[in-house]
Amino acid sequence: MKLWGGRFEQGPSEVFERFSGSLHFDRRMLEADIRGSQAFARALEGVGILTSSERAELVSAFHELAVESAGNNFFSGATDEDVHTLVIRKLGEKVGALAEKIHTGRSRNEQVSLDTRLWLRGEMDRALALVSGLMQALIDCAKRDPDAIVPGYTHLRRAQPVLWAHYLLAYFEMFARDHERLTQARARVNVLPLGSGALAGSGFPFDRDAIAKDLGFASTTFNSMDVSGDRDFALDFLYAASTTMLHLSRLAEDWILYSSEEFGWLELSDGVTSGSSLMPQKKNPDSLELIRGKFGRVFGDMNALFMTMKGLPMTYNRDMQEDKEPLFDAADQLCGSLEMAVAVVETAKLNPARPLQAAEESWTVATDLAEALARSGTPFHQAHKIAGRLVLESVRSGKKPSDWTLAELIRFAPEFTPACAAVLKPSEGMKTREIRGGTGPQHVAAALTDAENRLKTLRSV
Ligand code: ARG
User: How far is the C-alpha of 187 from the C-alpha of 268, rounded, in Å?
Assistant: First the structure.
């Protein structure tokens, strides 16, 4: 069965059918297609194309199809061009000639936009819940070791001591932005395209606001030509998904390093690691490596759709059928990666002694020291030089910060004061950073509470 056979003297060639058919992937939108068509049947009643009993018959036949589609052989042997065609064919098998009315004043161009939006909205809700789950896992992780100190890095060189909780809250902020971005993208997805027809607007006076309400859309689109040629809503999702994957890949990279023997900070649980078929001692962070790897895939999906859309003439072009596979893949990989990341974060154990030792032995306190000198009147440029010379001397003689006494410091440079000696301990220097956004311990404790409250608000809307 075709939705367009009349003008043709011959059917499509086998190779064209095989090449152009999309049922094998767009069948994923079956549920959305049925839901949209039920609402459309109600709209057809509204414009007098269907009687109320015809509408009722169609709506319940659609419902039966939805139930049957859960069964094993719903799709078996189906050679329909796409999911929209399949649904109408199956509808015809149930209600006969009445099925021929369902496409009145509707084009597949708007239907595919509708289905994709309905499907994507559901996926985005799933992703949003997973992102907030991950944000919660990061907070819980921070609460397990609220006082732990780690070296913060720039250039992957030990830079300044920070609280482990401060580090984790940095990721909380990235995922909070991702949550916001996904929510904003969802708002652009959540707009009803139906009523646009193929490109020129439907020839039937549908109450578009009523259809929008019926399907839970917040608003309706403004221009039928725009609808027919638009996939911005999908690109918005792919961008939000890519950014989330970017952040996940960086967390994954950090934790692959931090759980290595070289760092020794983190122990990943057995449940999220795997062994080697040859080397019996190995415990590999495959879950994190896969998360890191999947960024490339999702970013590729985004690129694929951008490239597909570039330069397309107004309005719908069949090229646009190529939107679905990247979209489906990105949603799957995003949700899968988020789910995996939650499991890793929930079960990881910090060994606080190792990062503390790293922070203590490697002069991450040098900045605190220079600033303490500046606080007691030494111009900062001088202070920087003095602290730098102290580090150089210590590196030469193999001294750690804690090896220096106040008397020795003063002998090294008379500018040193007791306040300088105090910040040789990372936990002391950190107390000078009680500023909004800083790693000062009081601030971080407050930031943790604040993060929890923000997350609660996010989850309640
Ligand atoms: N399968 C098509 C797609 O996914 C549906 C729209 C087809 N419209 C058309 N005019 N051929 O884009």
Answer: 37
- The answer to whether the CB of 318 is under 6 A from ligand 1 is yes
Atom 3 of ligand 1, residue of closest alpha carbon = 321
Amino acid at site 406: L
pLDDT bracket for residue 1 (50, 70, 90): confident
User: Residue 125 has which token pair?
Assistant: 């809700």
Residue 317 beta carbon below 6 angstroms from any ligand 1 atom:
no
Torsional sign, CA 204, 209, 210, 215: positive
Please tell me the distance from the alpha carbon of residue 226 to that of residue 88, in angstroms, as a whole number. Answer: 26
224 lines ligand 1 (CB under 6 A): no
Cα separation, 84 vs 72, in Å, equals 19
All domains of the chain in start order, with CATH = 14-101 (1.10.275.10), 108-351 (1.20.200.10), 358-460 (1.10.40.30)
What pLDDT shows up at residue 3?
79
Cβ atoms of residues 109 and 321 within 8 Å:
no
Atom 10 (ligand 1) nearest CA: 109
Q: What is the CA radius of gyration of the chain?
A: 30
Task: Give ∠ CA 319-320-323 in degrees, rounded to 5.
Answer: 120
How many CB atoms are closer than 10 A to CB 96? 9
Q: Which of 196, 312, 318 to mutate to test the pocket of ligand 1 (most atoms within 8 A of CB)?
A: 318
Q: How far is CA 398 from the centre of its chain?
A: 46
Two tokens at 287? 């879950």
- At 392-433, the pLDDT tens digits run 999 999 999 999 999 999 999 999 999 999 999 999 999 999
Cβ neighbours around 448 below 10 Å, total? 20
Active site residues: 155, 276
Nearest to 333 by CA among 278, 282, 293, 281: 293
**Mean per-residue pLDDT, 139-168:** 98
Mutate to test the pocket of ligand 1, among 112, 305, 308 (most ligand atoms within 8 A of CB): 112
The model's confidence at residue 5, banded by pLDDT at 50, 70 and 90, is confident
- Does ligand 1 have an atom closer than 6 angstroms to the CB of 234? no
CA of 22 to the centre of ligand 1 (A): 9
